[in-house]
Amino acid sequence: MVWRMLHEPAFKPGDHPTKITIEATPTAVRAALADARAVWCNAGIAISICDTAEQVLAEVLNNVVEHAQADRPDGLIELAISRSGDSMICDVRDDGAPMPGLCLPAGDMAEIDGDLQSLPEGGFGWYMIRTLTEDLNYERRDGCNHLHFRILAG
Prior knowledge:
Number of domains: 1
Order of helices and strands: EEHHEEHEE
CATH topology: Heat Shock Protein 90
CATH architecture: 2-Layer Sandwich
Number of strands: 6
Distance between the termini: 33 Å
Number of helices: 3
Shape: globular
Helix content: 25-40%
């Protein structure tokens, strides 16, 4: 399992972002999220931002592992996080497969009518990401996926 923090975070406005490289595996993503959350909370980031950042990043990073980096044992994800006022700015980069159509999924809420056995297992991730972030932007540049978003204090 590989994940390494390239800069110790201070999370002060104007500082350079914290840069993290994560092996594109579920185990490495879980470890990075747990450690990053502890760092954020210890740096005085509001619990509401820590909670939201962990939820959004878990969904984003797991999507990268499951879809963009599927079947690539050597895949890496680069994450840069900085603080701007009452928000966290997140940039996620990977060299995996591009988003279908080179654009973000619509993020429509999955249909939840019907009995419990017929409810979908998935389909909530992009809805949640779109709901909990601002300035969400995706582009494919130089053979890499670039996802940018901002998480507000809530």
